[in-house]
Amino acid sequence: MMQFALKMGLLVCFSIMVLTLYHEAFIYNGGITSSSFVIKQSKPIDMPLSSDVFSHPPGYNAPQQVHITQGDHVGRAVIVSWVTQDEPGSSSVVYWTDTNPQKHKATGKLTTYKYYNYTSGFIHHCIIKNLKFNTKYHYEVGIEMGHTTRRFWFMTPPAVGPDVPYTFGIMGDLGQTYDSNVTLTRYEMNPVKGQAVLFVGDLSYADHYTFHDNSRWDSWGRFVERCTAYQPWIWTAGNHELDYKPSIGETKPFKPFIHRYQVPFWASGSTEPLWYSIKRASAYVIVLSSWLISSYIHSMYTPQYQWLHEEFPKVNRGETPWLIVLMHSPWYSSNHDHFMEGESMRVIFEPWFVKYKVDLVFAGHVHAYERSERISNVAHNIVNGECSPVSDQFAPVYITIGDGGNIEGLANKMREPQPKYSAYREASFGHATLEIKNRTHAYYSWHRNADGYAARADSVMFFNRYWYPKDDSTTKSKRRW
C-alpha cells in the first residue's frame, strides 16, 4: 500500500508538472482562441537601407516622402506633404481634375526641425481646398524651374451622406521590416480596394534606433509613399511618436511627428493635432490621443476631455451613421503585453462611448490582432467585486490591430483563460478592411499576411448601433454574461 501511494504521489506530481509546462506553452502560443492558425515565430528584420523601397527619387531636389491626408472636416480639401533635401524649393502644388486639364495652383508652407544631431530636410505642407466630391485629381509637386517635378493622383470622397458606401483600410504599428513590406503589399493587392487608411499609430519606429535616429523617419516616408501619395491616411499618434528623450536634450514630445504629419485638427475645433475628427462619406471618425502633450495621465478637464465632451453631441447620425474612434492604446485586450495600459483613459471616456453608441473602436500598441464582442464596463461594483465587462449591444466593438510588422515583433503571450468578451484573437501580422455598405451594414475583415490576397482570416457583418442595433455577436452561442 505504501509503495502504491508513493507511486501514485509521484504520478500526480509528474502529471502536475506536465500540465504546468503544457499550460505555460499553451499560453505562449495564444491559448484557446477562435483562430487555429499558428504562425512560425521569428523576429522581424529591418529591410536594409539599400532596399529599393527606401530609394530616393532621381533628379535634383526631387520631392520625396509624399503623403496626403484629409484637409478639412468634410472631405473637400487635401493636405499634400513632402520633403526636399537639396534646397527648399517651392511649397506650391499644381492640380487638375481627370476630366478638365485646366490647372490650379495652391501654395503651402515650409518647416524644418532639429533633433539631437539630426537636421531635417525641408518639409512642405500645402492645403488644396474647394475640391469637388468623388473626383479624380492629378497633382504635381516640385514645380520650381530647373528642379525635379513629380506627379501623383488621388480621389476625393463622395459627398457626406447616410447611405454612401465607402471602404477603409486599417493598419497600425507598421515600422520598416520585411514584414512591414508584406503588410503594405497585402493591403495594396487586396481585391477589396481601400479608399483611405485609418492608421492607429506607431509609424516609423525611429525611436528604436540610437539617439532616436530621425533619418529613419525619412526612410519610412519613402517606404510608404507608394500608398500615402495616392490615398489619404488618417493619422493617429502612438507612443513611438513621442520621441521624448531628456537624456539627449529632447524634451518636446511628438516633435518629429507634428512637423512631418499635419492633420486638420482646427476644422473640428481641436486645439492640438493629436485629437480631432473628420467626416468621410457615411462615417464620422474621431481620433484620440492615448498620450497627451502636457500630461501622460488621463483625467477629467484636460483639453482632450473638454474637446471630446463637446464633440460627441455634434455627431449627426442622420448624416454620418457610422461613428468610429481611433486611438493607440487598447482598452480591452487579453494579451499580456501592455495589459490595462489604457485603463485610465477607459474609465474617463467609456461612458460617453456607450451613451453616444460608438460603433467601432480601433487601436494598436499590442502587436497582435484581437476583436471583442460588444461590451462595456461602466458600472464597477466595488462592494461585491463585480467589475468584469458585460455584454452591451449599445457599446462598441473594440479591435486591436497593432500587427503591421514592426521591429519589436509579435505579442504572442495571451492571457488565459480567454475572456468571454474576446471573440477572436491571434498573434499574426496583417491589415483589415471596413466596407461600409449603407447606414445599417458594414462588412469588416482582417487579413493575415500569411494568407493569399483575397483570404479573410476574420470577418463579420457589423450592424449600425444607431440605425440597426441588432445583435451582431459572432461567438457560437452569442453568449451573454
TrEMBL record:
Residues 1-20 form the signal peptide. It holds the Pfam family Metallophos_C. Residues 167-369 form the Calcineurin-like phosphoesterase domain. It comes from the Eukaryota. It catalyses: a phosphate monoester + H2O = an alcohol + phosphate. SUPFAM superfamilies: Metallo-dependent phosphatases, Purple acid phosphatase, N-terminal domain. Residues 395-452 form the Purple acid phosphatase C-terminal domain. Its cofactor is Mn(2+); Zn(2+); Fe cation; Cu(2+). CDD domains: MPP_PAPs. Residues 63-156 form the Purple acid phosphatase N-terminal domain. Belongs to the metallophosphoesterase superfamily. Purple acid phosphatase family. This is Purple acid phosphatase. It comes from Mikania micrantha.
